[in-house]
Amino acid sequence: MEALVCRKLGDPTTSVPSDDNSPVVLSKNHPIPTLDSPTSVRVQITATSLNYANYLQILGKYQEKPPLPFIPGSDYSGIVVAVGSKVSKFRVGDRVCSFVGVGSFAQFVVDDESRLFRVPDGCDLVAASALPVVFGTSHVALVHRAKLAPGQVLLVLGAAGGVGLAAVQIGKVCGAVVIAVARGAKKVEYLRSLGVDHVVDLNHQNVIENVKAFLKERKLKGVDVLYDPVGGKLTKDSMKLLNWSASILVIGFASGEVPVIPANIALVKNWTVHGLYWGSYSIHRPQVLEESMNELLSWLSSGLIRVHISHIYSPLEANLAFYAIKNREAVGKVVLVFEDKTMKSKL
User: Fold this and answer.
1) pTM over 0.85, yes/no
2) Cystine design at 9: which of 60, 97, 156, 163 (Cβ 3.0–4.6 Å)?
3) Would you list the DSSP string of 165-197?
4) Which domain range does residue 251 map to?
5) Name one GO molecular function term (predicted).
6) 152 and 258 assigned to the same domain
């Protein structure tokens, strides 16, 4: 099978996968993974999404460091092509999506049936490939951790990225007043098309002054939930907008700077700080993940949420895909398509 194999750590944007000196090389004859248990399922991958964590992992800067060589990749969608002797939930031909620690940047992946989710009829498989990690992260964070309620004010940083777009949509489904922070006219325009209540363009607007003016206009006291995949100075500024008893969701540090949340202010204002490493839920709270994914797939099927894919690449163009991730060019998601290089998303 074809597979993108990380043979050494480095920047995958600097050379094409056909170059033997590239950190990530396209192998044409990689072994097809075998069914390793009676409940395992082999999936032929239709599409697999790129996440910033995948890029960090290849650089060697992610918290989980698999031994070399490894196939990167996390969330994916595809068609079941083989099942173990005790598989009861799926059969050959079923449309599924899921996520793995590593291994989805390939034509085939093997996973246990307990980790697979059936993609409803009518859902685009390319869109489903980009659902688990970003929408799963945002759903668990907002619904299960912060318990976002109708009428609360949600402030989303990095709102035009994968998790950000997921967060603003989930916020609207939950009935929140959603404020989105992004950079650039194209991203602002798309966020407005999603029905976001207010958008701050960091290219020419100050987040503190702009949000305070909006809150005053709406007669709102402050932000109840801060969704933060960015970190750095933007986190520090956003904390000046938080209500008493607000929740801070620490999702990531796309700015490259880990913010400091003053414990004395958290005490006085009764803030709750939630660290969220979504992948660990598969170990510690698998039932939460299952409930979350099933609800998200239901929302996707009914049109309550949509997965915006701005870039689709073939495996030979993986360097371009990572470049779009590295340079924040994507509005939403970037995906690789393995099964059929001519395939076009319904989106």
Assistant:
1) yes
2) 60
3) HHHHHHHHHTT-EEEEEE-SHHHHHHHHHTT-S
4) 135-279
5) oxidoreductase activity
6) yes
